[in-house]
Design goal:
about 130 residues; mainly alpha; Arc Repressor Mutant, subunit A; 2 domains; about 70% helix; about 10% strand
Length: about 130
């Protein structure tokens, strides 16, 4: 287990008022944080960043219904080709969608069923939040 710094214990002691409890809590926090994988957390943050835009969420929702050509996506989101391509690129880089070339066109689909599950969870959280 990582060494607990005196400063961390001192700060926790000031917050909760008991040095023994503070040391115990800091030790527990150190245990938890030592298990975290910073590389994985950064990769997960990239996925959430890619989803954190209304246009990209709309694209993901469209792709729930199946594969679409980039021209169809452009019309559905009412964006120019350059903007649509930029959003698709971000979603693709995050691993949320896959691209398939079909002649001169690119067709897109969700990369995994897990993306649908993520969208379902967000919808469920909104229902809980807003009733």
């Amino acid at each position: 287990m990582a060494e607990v710094s005196d400063e961390a214990v001192n700060r926790m002691t000031r917050l909760i008022g008991d040095a023994d409890k503070a040391e115990c809590k800091v030790n527990k926090l150190r245990c938890i944080t030592n298990k975290l994988d910073e590389t994985q957390i950064k990769a997960e943050a990239e996925i959430f960043k890619a989803m954190a835009d209304p246009c990209r969420l709309k694209i993901l929702s469209l792709l729930r219904e199946g594969e679409l050509c980039v021209c169809e996506i452009m019309v559905a989101v009412d964006r120019p080709q350059s903007s649509t391509s930029h959003h698709l690129s971000l979603l693709k880089d995050a691993g949320l969608i896959k691209e398939r070339k079909d002649g001169r066109w690119s067709r897109y689909r969700l990369s995994e069923g897990a993306v649908i599950e993520m969208l379902n969870l967000v919808k469920l959280m909104n229902e809980v939040k807003y009733g």
